[in-house]
Design a protein that fits this description.
The complex is a heterodimer of chains A (199) and B (161).
Chain A lengths: L4 H22 L8 E7 L11 E4 L2 E10 L5 E10 L17 E10 L5 E15 L2 E8 L3 E10 L4 E10 L5 E3 L1 E3 L2 E3 L2 E12 L1
Chain B lengths: L1 H39 L9 H7 L1 H18 L3 H82 L1
Helix pairs in contact in B: 1-4, 3-4
The chains are: A mainly beta (199), B mainly alpha (161).
Chain lengths: 199, 161
């Protein structure tokens, strides 16, 4: 069988095209992988009636929505911290978390593109007044009563800090996540005041 | 009085034991979750069905809920209930790791087969495509030549007349 030069050229061109198509079909094309965390309050208000001064017994309801675009399953931990005006916030450059006091945390199992919800209801059940510094006793999800050793002068400028931590290969959690040697993090802070008035 | 003292010491020791068991078990579950996720990370190199993976690892999601529940129990001071929940979570994670391992092996085998098939099928498909392209090209070319010749003949005839 005589193979012409033209046929051979055509065959090689088609072969290359087919191999490219096969490669694209068989390989996962890398795309940016990340987490998303959104926090929504009841009636789209972070604090009831959009008033960040909360009274004793006033319930604050938050819904956490978490999504992962990582192609394989991931475990993340949502950490809720309480701080005051002197509390250090997470550092975006160094990747250090806030030094606030952890009040609640929970794990979330995430699969590709699946939205996960988690609801939290918290309230200041009582306040300890120590020389005009208010210390909070929090009630979380009607189950946990937590006495937090973080005080604020006359209950002003408390803040809740929310951080996203991820499970690493060694079984420990780290603040944020590393993707292609770059550090990413998600955190939010919600400042609020507390009055001694009861609801 | 001495009996009460002994009972109190025993209670403290028991509670300390529960406490240490709780943290050991919690770390165990975290280690297993880390093992599961890093094992499944290998899937990135392959084509796989996300829904199937979700079904295979559904127990991990339940285990995570149990861990959360155990943490609440621990906060409430009920360490024995927390430990029971963590034991169940550990068991579920063991099963999930096993089924995830099987799934990973299945995906690897399928992808390897697919790659080998493509290695052999691609040149054959390329050859068939080029062969038929040549045949079609030649056919069309011959027809075109025929049309050109017949037009030429017709013209020549007309000229001769």
């Amino acid at each position: 069988m005589k193979i012409s030069k033209k046929f051979l050229t055509l065959f090689l061109i088609i072969l290359v095209i087919y191999y490219i198509v096969a490669y694209v079909f068989l390989t996962n094309i890398p795309s940016q992988e990340f987490y998303e965390l959104a926090i929504q309050g009841k009636n789209n208000e972070i604090f009831p009636n959009n008033n960040s001064t909360i009274t004793i017994g006033e319930k604050v309801q938050w819904e956490f929505i978490i999504v992962s675009t990582f192609r394989t399953p991931r475990i993340v931990e949502i950490v809720m911290k309480l701080g005051n005006n002197n509390t250090m916030l997470p550092n975006d450059v160094n990747g250090t978390p806030s030094n606030g006091t952890e009040i609640f945390s929970w794990l979330v199992y995430l699969t590709y593109g699946v939205k996960k919800d988690y609801s939290i209801e918290w309230a200041v059940s009582s306040v300890e007044n120590r020389s005009d510094y208010y210390y909070l006793i929090l009630n979380i999800n009607n189950t946990i009563i937590k006495r937090v050793d973080v005080g604020a002068y006359k209950g002003e400028k408390f803040r809740i800090i929310i951080e996203l931590w991820t499970l690493e290969e060694n079984g420990d959690f780290r603040f944020g996540w590393v993707y292609q040697n770059q550090l990413y993090m998600i955190w939010y802070q919600y400042p609020f005041n507390v009055t001694l008035a009861k609801k | 009085m001495q009996i009460f003292l002994k009972a109190a010491i025993l209670l403290i020791l028991l509670s300390a034991q529960y406490n240490s068991d709780y943290y050991t078990l919690l770390q165990n579950t975290q280690d297993k979750l880390a093992m599961l996720t890093s094992m499944l990370e290998q899937l990135k190199a392959y084509k796989f069905d996300y829904n199937e993976l979700q079904a295979v690892t559904a127990n991990a999601s339940i285990a995570v809920s149990l861990i959360n529940e155990a943490q609440i129990m621990h906060e409430k001071g009920n360490d024995s209930a927390a430990i029971n929940l963590l034991l169940t979570a550990n068991q579920l994670l063991d099963e999930t790791i096993k089924s995830a391992n099987d799934y990973l092996a299945k995906v690897q085998a399928y992808n390897n087969l697919l790659r080998i098939s493509f290695i052999f099928a691609t040149p054959i498909a390329a050859f068939i495509t080029s062969y038929f392209s040549t045949v079609v090209y030649n056919y069309l070319n011959k027809r075109r030549i025929k049309i050109i010749i017949s037009s030429y003949v017709r013209l020549k005839k007309d000229e001769d007349k």
